[in-house]
Amino acid sequence: HGTSRINEFGHLEIGGVDTVQLAKQYGTPLFVYDMALIKQRAKQFQDAFIDEGVPYQVAYASKAFSCLAMFQLASELGLSLDVVSGGELYTAIKANVPMGRIHFHGNNKSISELEMAVEAKIGCVVVDNFYELEQLSRICLEKETKMNVLLRITPGVEAHTHDYISTGQEDSKFGFDLESGQAAEAIERALKAEKIELLGIHSHIGSQIFETTGFVMAVEKIYQYINQWRENYQYVPKVLNLGGGFGIRYTEEDAPLPVGNYIKEMIRVVKEKSAESNMDLPEIWIEPGRSLVGDAGTTLYSIGSSKELPAIRHYLSVDGGMSDNLRPALYQAKYEAVLANRAAEQTEEVYSIAGKCCESGDMLIWDLPLPKANHEDILAVFCTGAYGYSMANNYNRIPRPAVVFVEEGDAYVVIERESYADLIRLDKPLVSVVKQ
Ligand code: LLP
C-alpha cells in the first residue's frame, strides 16, 4: 500500500527509499513513515467534505503520533490539531501550529493546562465535565479572554470495537450524559458563562470502526436532544464534531470503508436531520488519528535469537517489542510483516515474533508466515504508525527508537533514537539525595 513496493534487490522500499539501507543507516528498531500516504489520507478526508460543499474541519488526533515534524506536516496539510495534554499543546506551540486550529480534549485537564490553553488562545476547548467548565470559565474571566467551547457528550452509542477503547457508551468516564439531562444542564451553564462561547457539540463513539452505523446512530441521538435544547434554551449548535475512530486494515481480518464513505454518510444524516428540524446545517468537524497515520508507519526490526519447539512453535526474537509497540500486549492487536531484505521470496515457515522485553506477554505477532529467516534479516511490521511510537515506553530501560519520514527517495530523521545517556538524564545518584 502507499508508496511501498519491492525494488530490484528484492528489498522493501517505502517512499522511494530502500528500507534495508534505512535499517543500516539509522539502526533498528526504526519507525518509517510514508509521507505521501499521510498526505493522501488527509486529502481523502478533506475532499469528501469539499465534494459535498459542507463547511468542515479535519483535526488530526495527535495522540496517534506526535512530534514537531508531524505537527508541522499536519498544519501544512490544512489539518487542525486535537491535543489532549499540556505536553501535546506545548509541542504544537513549539511547532508553530496556528493556535486557532488547536482543539483541546481530555477528561481531566489540569488548571495549568487550561491556563496554558487560554493564554495560547487556542481554537477551542472540548469541555468534558462540570468541574472543567467552571474552572475554564473562571480562568477566562481572570485573563479577560474569550474561549470557544464544544461540549463533549456521550451519545450512548457503543461502536463495534475493543472494550478498552470504546468511549461512546453511557457508562464512560468521558463527557456529559445525554439521557440524565447532564448535557442540557451543561449547555445552560455554558450559555450563561460570560467568557465562554458555546460553539457546539462533540461526540466520539470509539476507535477502529468499520461501519457507518454508529456515526449515524450518534447523529440521530444528538438531534433528538438538539431539538429539545432549541426549545428550552433557544440554542442551536454551530459545530457538530463527530470525533474520530475510522478503522484501518492491520490484517486481512479488518475491512475498513474508504474514508470518504464515512464522511459522506455523516454528512447525509446531518443534512437530513437538520432539514427535518428546519435548522441551518452545522459545520461538521472530525478528528481522525489512526486513519491519518496508521498505515503510513512501518517498524523495522533486526531479527536476533530464535527458539524452536519442534512441532509446536518457532520463536524469532526482534530487537524491540512492547517498548515500541504496546498494542499486541494491551489489546491483542494483530499485525502483518515481511522480511524487508527478502520481500520477494516465498514464505515457507511459520514463526511467532517475540519482543525482547522480559515477560512472556511481549509477543508482537503469532504464527507469521515468512521465508526461512535468520539473524541477518530485517523484519518490517506494517501499520504501526498510530499508537506505536506515541505509546512507546522505556520498559526494561530500552531506549525508544528513531523515527524517519521518507518521501521521493529522501529520508528525514524526525525523532532521534534515544541514547543510554537520555535514559538516565532525569535520574539523581543516591549520594545527591541521601544525607551524608
Ligand atoms: N477523538 C477522541 C475524542 C478520541 O478519544 C480519539 C481516540 C480520537 C479522536 C482518535 O481516534 P482514532 O481516529 O485514532 O481511532 N490506544 C488505542 C486507541 C485509543 C484511542 C483513544 N482515543 C489503540 O492503540 O488502539
TrEMBL record:
Pfam family, one: Orn_Arg_deC_N
Positions carrying N6-(pyridoxal phosphate)lysine: K63
InterPro entries documented for this protein: Ala_racemase/Decarboxylase_C (IPR009006), DAP_deCOOHase_LysA (IPR002986), De-COase2_C (IPR022643), De-COase2_N (IPR022644), Orn/DAP/Arg_de-COase (IPR000183), PLP-binding_barrel (IPR029066)
Residues covered by the Orn/DAP/Arg decarboxylase 2 N-terminal domain: 37-293
Catalytic activity: meso-2,6-diaminopimelate + H(+) = L-lysine + CO2
Active site: C358 (proton donor)
Binding site for substrate: R290, R327, Y331, E359, Y387
Entry keyword Lyase: yes
Cytoplasm is among the record's keywords: no
Record note on quaternary structure: Homodimer.
Name by which UniProt lists this protein: Diaminopimelate decarboxylase
Organism the protein comes from: Alkalihalobacillus alcalophilus ATCC 27647 = CGMCC 1.3604
Gene encoding the protein: lysA
